[in-house]
C-alpha cells in the first residue's frame, strides 16, 4: 500500500469511500422505509374513515330503503334511488316498480326495518362491505297483526365524491 492511500486512523481512502457509500445506502433505505410507513399509516387512516363513514351511511340508509308504506310506496322508491349506485340502482328501481310497489298497493303493506347490529366485513379507501342484522316488522290487509322477521344483509357501499351510495344489497 502506498503512503498516499493511507489516511488518518490507518484506513485507506478506498475503505473510507466504501463506508460512506454503505452509510448513504442505509440512509436511502431508511428514508424509503419511512415513506412507506407514512403512506401505509395514511392508507390505514383512510380505510378507518371509510369503515366509519360507510357503516354510518349503511345503518341509516338500509332501514330507509327497506321501510315503506303502501300509501307512499311509489314516492318512497323514487326518493331512495338517489342513494343507490351501480347496477344495483337499476335493479332496485325495476324490482320496486314492477314487484314491490304493486304488491304493497294490492296487499296494503306497511313495513319498517331497523338495524340491530352491524359489522364491517371488508373496506378499502373508498368503499366498505358490511353485514347488517335487521328486524323488519310488517303488517298488511290480510295480516293486520305485526309480523316480525329477523334477517341479515350484506351491503356494499362506495364513496362517490363527497357522498356514499349503496351499490349492492344481498340477503344472507
Task: Explain what this protein looks like in three dimensions.
This protein is of the alpha+beta class and 172 residues long. The protein is 49% helix and 30% strand. The protein has 3 helices and 5 strands; from the N terminus they run αβααββββ. The chain has helices at 13-66, 73-80, 86-107; strands at residues 68-69, 110-123, 127-139, 147-160, 163-171. Strands 1-2-3-4-5 form a 5-stranded antiparallel β-sheet. A hairpin with a 7-residue loop joins strand 3 (127-139) and strand 4. Helix 2 (73-80) runs antiparallel to helix 3. The radius of gyration is 30 Å and the shape is rod-shaped.
Give a brief description:
The chain has 172 residues and is an alpha+beta fold.
Listing every helix as H and every strand as E from the N terminus to the C terminus, the arrangement reads HEHHEEEE
Q: Strand order across the biggest sheet? A: 1-2-3-4-5
- The N- to C-terminal Cα distance equals 79 Å
Shape: rod-shaped
Helix content: 40-55%
Rg, Å, rounded: 30 Å
Tell me the fraction of residues in β-strands, as a range.
25-35%
Largest β-sheet summary: 5 strands, antiparallel
- Contiguous helical run count: 3
Structural class: alpha+beta
Low-confidence stretches: none
The beta-strand count equals: 5
Mean pLDDT, to the nearest integer, reads 89
Amino acid at each position: 500500500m502506498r503512503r498516499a492511500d493511507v489516511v488518518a486512523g490507518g484506513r485507506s481512502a478506498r475503505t473510507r469511500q466504501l463506508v460512506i457509500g454503505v452509510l448513504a445506502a442505509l440512509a436511502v433505505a431508511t428514508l424509503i422505509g419511512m415513506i412507506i410507513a407514512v403512506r401505509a399509516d395514511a392508507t390505514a387512516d383512510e380505510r378507518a374513515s371509510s369503515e366509519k363513514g360507510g357503516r354510518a351511511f349503511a345503518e341509516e340508509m338500509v332501514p330507509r330503503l327497506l321501510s315503506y308504506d303502501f300509501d307512499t310506496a311509489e314516492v318512497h322508491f323514487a326518493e331512495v334511488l338517489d342513494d343507490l349506485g351501480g347496477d344495483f340502482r337499476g335493479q332496485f328501481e325495476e324490482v320496486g316498480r314492477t314487484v314491490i310497489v304493486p304488491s304493497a298497493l294490492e296487499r296494503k303493506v306497511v313495513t319498517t326495518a331497523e338495524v340491530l347490529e352491524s359489522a364491517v366485513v371488508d373496506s378499502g379507501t373508498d368503499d366498505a362491505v358490511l353485514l347488517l342484522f335487521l328486524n323488519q316488522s310488517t303488517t298488511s290487509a290480510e295480516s293486520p297483526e305485526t309480523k316480525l322477521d329477523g334477517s341479515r344483509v350484506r351491503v356494499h357501499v362506495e364513496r362517490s365524491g363527497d357522498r356514499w351510495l349503496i351499490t349492492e344489497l344481498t340477503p344472507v
